[in-house]
Design brief:
Layout: E1 4-9, E2 16-21, E3 69-72, E4 77-80, E5 83-84, H1 85-88, H2 94-103, H3 109-122, H4 128-135, H5 143-157, H6 163-166, H7 175-201, H8 214-222, H9 234-246, H10 254-263, H11 269-280, H12 287-299, H13 305-313, H14 334-348, H15 355-367, H16 369-373, H17 384-392, H18 401-406
Helix pairs in contact: 3-7, 4-5, 4-7, 5-7, 5-11, 7-8, 9-14, 10-11, 14-17
Length: 409
């Protein structure tokens, strides 16, 4: 039973209140009606505002009726728009699940083709300012800093996307313009990811093909192609498609919240994305990917892992990829990520040597009472980075945020 009434009795006044429960949710505003008499000495009692709910870190607070995804941290179930991750993994093209997440349904054949073509056509617009900004960075600069600067340059080249610059609201109530802005944002982000990768790796940027799909076009722009055919290898395209499905959305994350806060001002989606990216690069969010790899580099060999774990138990550091805010027992992403790493190993005939160190962390944590008693288990964050090192020879290039933030509103 997900709906009903919550009965509350205030011990301060002996007053009773009935607060509706709808779909397992209560409205925080209803607690504002719970007040005390204003004649007390406490200044807080004189306020017109009643009870306020304090929830640091949104540990148990929903700030929007969010139905893009649902996560069960106890059972490890991840559902996108009513479809279990297992149902989507390995079966959907990018255009299929992006359409599902953004517009709430799978596209028809005609709709899918229009979505694909719209993305390809929008990706033909590569502003000179964007290229210039990226090339002004040192090649060794963090990729995220280049991406955020380039997104701002894209907006500067397309000021018509900026509501304030255009004199007022553009998107509120105008779903046709919203849809166009989504297409432009997805395409701009792909262009910028590719340009940043090319700058960092000395690859030549290749324009998209109008008959190409989003992911193959992204790999084409990056120069990640087969030397014989000049086309993206379908095997790598398949790996990235699966990777993006696994990490497409995880509810009200910190970066999603940042995106929504910015969107609440009626800002354009690219500005919202910049906010989300700024938030995501923190050590406790996507930045954890880089920190995880740097930690593994310092540990170097599996035989050094016991010392690392001892330091973690002494409170000197956090173990990478151990313990998760959402996935308390089972991380549904872990098994498919390990399968992707095996797939990449079979394609390339090799794997990152540091994977052995990660596996040793995994093995020891799984049998150590210190971690199991605290419900601290290994999650996919320990292994994500090896997909990047296998495909891009760099651990510092977080591609998987591309859908996750843009679908959030």
């Amino acid at each position: 039973m997900s709906s009903g009434i919550l009965h509350v009795k205030d011990s301060r006044t002996s007053n009773s209140y009935e607060i509706p429960i709808v779909d397992n949710i209560i409205r925080a505003a209803n607690f504002g009606n719970i007040k005390v008499a204003k004649n007390g000495s406490d200044p807080l009692d004189k306020s017109e505002v009643g009870l306020t709910l304090l929830d640091p870190g949104y540990a148990n607070t929903a700030v929007v009726d969010f139905n893009v995804s649902s996560v069960d941290g106890e059972t490890g179930q991840l559902v996108y728009r009513g479809h279990d991750l297992k149902e989507l993994y390995g079966k959907c093209e990018y255009e299929d699940y992006a359409h599902l997440l953004i517009w709430g349904r799978f596209p028809s054949s005609k709709g899918k083709e229009k979505f694909r073509l719209d993305l390809a056509m929008a990706a033909q617009d590569v502003p000179f300012a964007v290229k210039n900004v990226i090339q002004s960075f040192p090649q060794t600069a963090p990729a995220m800093t280049m991406i955020m600067a380039a997104l701002s340059a894209y907006l500067g080249s397309n000021p018509c996307m900026l509501p304030a610059f255009e004199g007022g609201n553009l998107y509120q109530g105008n779903m046709e313009l919203v849809d166009k802005a989504i297409i432009r944002t997805l395409s701009a982000y792909a262009i910028i990811l590719a340009l940043v990768h090319c700058h960092r790796s000395n690859n030549e940027f290749t324009p998209v093909k109008l008959d190409g799909s989003y992911l193959p076009n992204l790999l084409l722009m990056m120069g990640f192609v087969d030397t014989g055919t000049g086309e993206p290898d379908p095997k790598y395209t398949s790996v990235m498609r699966k990777k993006w499905v696994i990490s497409a959305d995880h509810g009200m994350t910190n970066s999603t919240s940042a995106f929504l806060h910015t969107a609440s001002t009626q800002a354009d989606p690219i500005s919202c994305l910049v906010s989300a990216l700024s938030s995501s690069y923190g050590p406790l969010h996507f930045g954890a990917t880089e920190i995880s790899y740097r930690t593994l580099q310092q540990v170097a060999r599996p035989e050094n892992v016991p010392a690392l774990i001892a330091r973690a138990k002494a409170g000197e550091l956090r173990l990478p990829g151990v313990g998760h805010r959402m996935y308390k027992l089972v991380d549904p992403r872990l098994k498919p990520v390990l399968e992707l790493l095996q797939e990449l190993k079979e394609i390339q005939g090799k794997e990152d040597p540091l994977i052995a160190t990660a596996r040793e962390i995994h093995r020891l944590v799984a049998v150590d009472e210190y971690f199991t008693k605290r419900r601290l288990f290994v999650n996919a964050d320990l292994y994500w980075v090896f997909i990047y090192t296998a495909m891009y020879e760099s651990p510092f290039f977080s591609l998987h945020v591309v859908i996750r933030e843009i679908v959030s509103p």
